[in-house]
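Reviewers of the previous submission asked for a worked example of the structure-prediction workflow described in the proposal, so we include one complete record here. The input consisted solely of the amino acid sequence. No template or homolog information was supplied to the procedure at any stage.
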Amino acid sequence: MAISRRNFIENNGATCNNWRSSWSFVNHNEKRVIFGAWEVEKDGSLSRILATDWQFDKIGRTKSAYNQALEHIRLVKDEDYQLMTFPIKHADPVPVQTSIGKFVPELTSKTLKQIDGDWFALDSSVSDPTNNFDEYIRRSNVVRHLNEGRKNTPKPKGSIKPDKTFTTTTSYYRDPEVRAWVLFENDGACEACDNKAPFTTTDGSPFLEVHHLVRLADGGPDVVDNAIAVCPNCHRRLHYSSDRNTYLDKIYAKNSRLKRH
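From that input alone, the workflow returned the following structure tokens.
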């Protein structure tokens, strides 16, 4: 027998204020927030779970389910609750945004992302840190393309002390969101010499490299105030030139985003 949406949510220890119209739920004991992800709001690895224009009904009243969803977003953002989603479909016909039809009783862990004031659930596999450099580049490129055309993309948290793993060499888990944000914010220019990127890649993106001012191997954090987008020439200069410390001081002096760690 098919399980009801309420039974599915309660079986996962979560609840809500209004079972008829809610699409977000919370389990305080396990610090978990669950959102229904509308199929029509999904775009690749990104699903819109709360939009500013969902706040009011047709006669201008604030929907109670909207304020509840906003509070659940806050729990994920500020209280480190885990975000999970399950697929939902609109009822047919669709009278209002919160008219819920069929759903799939499967929970998937997600990462919360804000774009132009709306809130999205991003596939964790895209935004999770990785110690595989090629995979790190791939993931950050996915995130960077998701941000294209968007305004006021929030700075990612990154990691003050990145996890590391030991093989025959030591490698660090790098956050693809940090790299994507740094490359997205510089408008295609090197943050050291201010020249435009030397060429564009096959996908049309300006070719710049991300450099950690204090290397991860030296205890530097993987955060946006310790990372800059630089051309290959400046990147080599920051690693190998005799004046690299002087050059680094100039970069700190002209970029207010950067912080000495």
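The first strand starts at residue 24 and ends at 27. We consider this example representative of the routine output the project will generate in years two and three.
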